[in-house]
Design a protein that fits this description.
The protein has 124 residues and is mainly alpha-helical. The chain is built from five helices and three strands; from the N terminus they run H-E-H-E-H-H-E-H. Helix 3 crosses helix 4. The chain is elongated.
Length: 124
C-alpha cells in the first residue's frame, strides 16, 4: 500500500511551481499598460541583464526579432497571462522592452480592399 503523503505527487506532471513563486509573490504588474493584445518589442538583443530570472530571459528570447502580443507570450511560455503581465512590468521597468498599442480597428485596412487584393493574386 502506498504512503498517503505521496499521493499528491504526479510523476507525469513534473515539477509544480505556483504562479506567485515566479513573480516573487506579486499579483499585479508595476504598471497598468498591458492588455492581452498589447504588442511587446525588445529594446535590444541582450538577455543577460542583471536581475533577470529565467522567465524574464525566456520572454526576451521569445520577442527577439518580432513583436508578440501578451496573449502570444503567455501561450508560448505556458504561463498565465497575469504572471506574464507582472514579468513584463519588470522588463519594462528595466528598459528591456517597449510596448506598442495594437492597430486600431479604424486604422486597419478595409476587408473589401484585402479581398480584392487576394482575388487579384489568385488570378495571377
Amino acid at each position: 500500500m502506498s504512503d498517503p503523503d505521496d499521493t499528491w505527487w504526479d510523476e507525469d506532471a513534473g515539477p509544480i511551481v505556483r504562479s506567485f513563486a515566479r513573480t516573487g509573490g506579486r499579483t499585479r504588474p508595476s504598471r497598468d499598460e498591458f492588455n492581452l493584445i498589447t504588442l511587446i518589442i525588445t529594446a535590444d538583443d541582450r538577455t543577460d541583464r542583471p536581475g533577470l530570472e529565467p522567465e524574464h530571459a525566456g520572454i526576451l528570447r521569445l520577442c527577439a526579432g518580432n513583436p508578440l502580443s501578451v496573449a502570444e507570450i503567455a501561450a508560448k511560455s505556458d504561463l498565465p497571462p497575469t504572471v506574464v503581465k507582472v514579468l513584463l512590468g519588470d522588463l519594462l521597468d528595466m528598459g528591456a522592452i517597449h510596448t506598442r498599442a495594437p492597430i486600431a480597428l479604424a486604422d486597419a485596412p478595409d476587408i473589401h480592399v484585402l479581398q480584392a487584393v487576394l482575388d487579384g493574386i489568385r488570378r495571377i
